[in-house]
Amino acid sequence: MAKTFKARALSRPHVRREYDRLSDEFAFLDEILKARAESGLSQAQVAARIGTTQSAVARLESAGGGHSPSITTLQRYASALGYKVQVRLVKDSAIAGKTPRTRARVLRTG
Q: 27: burial class by Cβ within 10 Å (0-12, 13-18, 19+)?
């Protein structure tokens, strides 16, 4: 049933654009959740290790809401799990080689 709903939703162009726009964020959240699962720690245990609250860890692990944790926060979270954060810039083939005006339009519309 969930697969059918997803397929129907993604057949709508505006839903597909938003889904594609958020794909990197969801992939990163999957990495965070998998790392915590592999560590065997609860949100409360991670919070205690980094000196914050369980609800702050829950916000960090959730999608949407406009929450953008700092690199330092992500590093502290990763360290508590026995990981490290790597930040890279990767060329976006969808906008590479476009004029600045066209590039801005592509970035706005996703």
A: exposed
pLDDT, tens digit (0-9, with 9 covering 90-100), for 53-92: 999 999 999 876 667 889 999 999 999 999 999 998 988 8
Distance CA 103, CA 61 (A): 31
pTM for this model (two decimals)? 0.70
Neighbour tally for 46: CB within 10 Å:
22
**How far is residue 94's CA from residue 78's CA, in Å, rounded to a whole number?**
31
Which one is the CATH code of 2-84: 3.30.450.40, 3.40.640.10, 3.40.190.10, 1.10.260.40? 1.10.260.40
